[in-house]
Amino acid sequence: MEEQQLWTEWMEVLLARASVNGDSGEVPVAAVILDEQGRCIGHGRNRRERCQDPLGHAELVALSQAATIRGDWRFNPCTLLVTLEPCPMCAGALVQARMGTVIFGATDRKRGGLGGCINLADDPSAHHHMRVVGPLMQERAAEQLEIWFRQRRRRNR
Prior knowledge:
Blueprint: H1 3-23, E1 30-34, E2 40-45, H2 48-51, H3 58-70, E3 79-84, H4 88-96, E4 101-106, E5 131-133, H5 138-156
Parallel strand pairs: 3-4, 4-5
Antiparallel strand pairs: 1-2, 1-3
Domain CMP/dCMP-type deaminase: 5-117
GO molecular function: tRNA-specific adenosine-34 deaminase activity; zinc ion binding
Organism: Parasynechococcus marenigrum (strain WH8102)
């Protein structure tokens, strides 16, 4: 299967998972890690509210699961797809994990750690440089987040 087609199919799945997560009160973000054959070895959705865990970002949940499955913390041949550009915390974790490729949906101009606000992947201090692709399906991913935050603000008034 062509790389772009694989990414698009996975982003469709992630947007659906993120929507379900948004319905539960979490920010609708979902992530998946694929091995070099394109198989899912880890997935995650935001779970900060449910677990009261500041580290409960979708990317970190997926990384933890994939490390357990692989029995290794190095992800050089792997790809992470996520519906929102990783924040600096997650971008730093992806550099530390030596992720091969990161593909994100919506750009995060306020908190994006891979180009939206700052770019930790290209920082001179980074000991590992990963391929960053995004935005992918920007309009749909951004719209999903905008609608969720708009509804949340209305409920909180």
